[in-house]
């Protein structure tokens, strides 16, 4: 077992330098292939001497094949280990940096030593500081554990490669046809044996911090290799880098499109071949089954439309595509899943490098089939943030939960409670995977999406700087202070003619108000947050309210969009 003290002294440079020298030796060996083919026994030479000469030649060829395999295995192993060590060194650097920043020390045995909070910590803050330090200590333990696990895996793998080389067990050259020998083929076999495995990641239930601790120990090459070889493992993982998640999820997107098209064709065939009467009518007792097939077909069409919309948005960032649009931010697919109503998490701009990051949570009726509308809103918020001075914003469309399918379902808090942990873990992952100076993060909900945001902030303590509530039916709290961010960082707006106003009844004293099950209107001055302006929207037949006004916050000239951009950029609305 490798110790922390040993790992902190590891250095990848000697191995990386050795690869060049070993490669030069390998190339000299491979150059002998043509010569070997010409030294077999001459035609017409027979007898005891000829047989002895042939045996000697065979031994020379077999020895060179084994040598080529051994040199190739060493070259591959040294290269892989040097690369892997660079990942482990990064894991050490991140762990030690986190420890220093919070006044912890990592002992030579990997123990986490708490050197105590700042001595001037106010009495009323000591309990909260203690909880925070316990969380940091747990993350440090995870990071040390992942570094040591990866280091031990590297050490074991390289020892196995070296043992095979030393014991002459890279290949068995005696079974080869020496009349057609290929030292390059022998070298390829040896190189395959010299490759290192990538340590297994934490379980699927791991937190974003645990995922990030593991990810920090991998080199860039290992991360990309894992994304290419195991996209289903990398794609949905909060805490892994957006770059590799995007690589993995684009592969998953292609697979899901192909599978759904096949399923759709099969379903359409069943519908076309469904038994009918002589008049071409569906028998009455078969009508329910036939209708169910058509419903399933509509769902498949919707999911395919959503996947195709994501695919088209990706093509807008490809200069070789006819859809290329240089004004659009490059998208990163952070999750795509057609199970149930479907999941889609797409970032406009890289959230790992962006200075300002916003997560947009849509509301009732949001699902994979409707993703194109939400992607357009994200594009609008990116532009608004840039106009407000944000140089590198990233706005993420987060369809990561089962939203209420209709208005009657939207009075139920269960959809928010079921999705709040996923949102919290995603926001934690953004913090964990971000590079350099921490970004300024905003979470923005629309309609029932604000209810989910509110429940997550109330119960999970979202890792965000700002909360923005657009057209909210209520967020599960009576006051902005209950959302675990400063009340002056909670912003809300509702259009004067928005139909949501019909559901925001005057609050009756006490929790569980049957007229207002989701909580009071966040734009109410008594809620305690800040409000910003929106265009009133078109008037409707019921008290002047309309459904159309519920969706116009992202129109180009709406002051609400301008102010959302300002908040994302770290500025105050209305200025």
Automatic annotation (TrEMBL):
<dbReference type="InterPro" id="IPR029058">
    <property type="entry name" value="AB_hydrolase_fold"/>
</dbReference>
<feature type="domain" description="DUF1023">
    <location>
        <begin position="337"/>
        <end position="503"/>
    </location>
</feature>
<dbReference type="InterPro" id="IPR010427">
    <property type="entry name" value="DUF1023"/>
</dbReference>
<protein>
    <recommendedName>
        <fullName>DUF1023 domain-containing protein</fullName>
    </recommendedName>
</protein>
<feature type="region of interest" description="Disordered">
    <location>
        <begin position="511"/>
        <end position="557"/>
    </location>
</feature>
<dbReference type="Pfam" id="PF06259">
    <property type="entry name" value="Abhydrolase_8"/>
</dbReference>
């Amino acid at each position: 077992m490798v110790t922390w003290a040993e790992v902190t002294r590891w250095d990848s440079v000697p191995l990386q330098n050795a690869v060049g020298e070993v490669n030069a030796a390998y190339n000299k060996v491979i150059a002998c292939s043509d010569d070997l083919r010409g030294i077999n026994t001459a035609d017409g030479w027979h007898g005891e001497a000829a047989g002895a000469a042939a045996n000697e030649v065979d031994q020379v060829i077999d020895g060179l094949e084994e040598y080529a395999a051994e040199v190739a295995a060493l070259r591959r192993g040294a290269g892989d280990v040097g690369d892997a060590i660079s990942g482990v060194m990064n894991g050490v650097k991140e762990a030690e940096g986190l420890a220093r920043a919070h006044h912890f020390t990592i002992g030579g045995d990997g123990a986490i030593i708490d050197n105590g909070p700042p001595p001037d910590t106010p009495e009323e803050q000591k309990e909260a500081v203690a909880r925070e330090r316990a969380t940091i200590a747990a993350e440090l333990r995870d990071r040390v554990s992942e570094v040591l696990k990866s280091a031990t895996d590297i050490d074991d793998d390289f020892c196995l490669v070296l043992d095979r080389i030393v014991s002459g067990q890279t290949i068995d050259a005696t079974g080869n046809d020496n009349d057609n020998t290929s030292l390059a083929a022998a070298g390829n076999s040896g190189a395959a044996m010299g490759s290192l495995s990538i340590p297994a990641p934490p379980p699927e239930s791991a937190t974003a911090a645990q995922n990030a601790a593991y990810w920090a120990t991998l080199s860039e090459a290992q991360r990309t290799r894992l994304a290419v070889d195991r996209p289903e493992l990398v794609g949905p993982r909060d805490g892994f880098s957006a770059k590799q998640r995007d690589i993995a999820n684009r592969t998953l997107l292609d697979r899901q499109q192909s599978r759904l098209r096949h399923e759709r064709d099969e379903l359409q065939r069943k519908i076309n071949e469904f038994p009918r009467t002589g008049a071409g009518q569906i028998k009455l007792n078969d009508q329910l089954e036939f209708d169910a097939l058509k419903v399933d077909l509509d769902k498949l069409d919707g999911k395919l439309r959503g996947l195709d919309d994501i695919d088209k948005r990706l093509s807008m960032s490809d200069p070789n595509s006819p859809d290329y649009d240089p004004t659009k931010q490059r998208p990163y697919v952070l999750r795509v899943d057609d199970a149930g109503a479907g999941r889609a998490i797409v970032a406009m701009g890289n959230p790992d490098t962006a200075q300002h990051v916003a997560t947009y949570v849509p509301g009732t009726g949001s699902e994979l089939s409707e993703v194109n509308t939400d992607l357009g809103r994200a594009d609008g918020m990116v532009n608004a943030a840039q106009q407000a001075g944000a140089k590198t914003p990233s706005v993420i469309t987060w369809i990561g939960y089962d939203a209420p399918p209709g208005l009657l379902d939207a009075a139920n808090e269960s959809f928010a409670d079921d999705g709040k942990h996923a949102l919290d873990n995603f926001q934690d992952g953004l913090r964990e995977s971000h590079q350099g100076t921490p970004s300024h993060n905003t979470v923005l909900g629309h309609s029932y999406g604000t209810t989910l945001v509110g429940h997550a902030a109330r119960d999970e303590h979202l890792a965000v700087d700002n909360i923005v509530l657009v057209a909210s039916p209520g967020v599960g709290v009576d006051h902005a202070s209950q959302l675990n961010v400063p009340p002056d960082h909670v912003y809300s707006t509702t259009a004067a003619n928005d139909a949501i106003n019909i559901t925001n009844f005057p609050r009756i004293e006490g929790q569980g108000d049957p007229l207002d099950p989701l909580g009071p209107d966040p734009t109410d001055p008594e809620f305690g947050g800040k409000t910003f302006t929106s265009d009133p929207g078109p008037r409707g037949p019921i008290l002047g309210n309309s459904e159309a006004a519920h969706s116009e916050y992202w129109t180009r000239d709406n002051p609400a969009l301008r102010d959302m951009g300002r908040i994302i950029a770290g500025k105050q609305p209305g200025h």
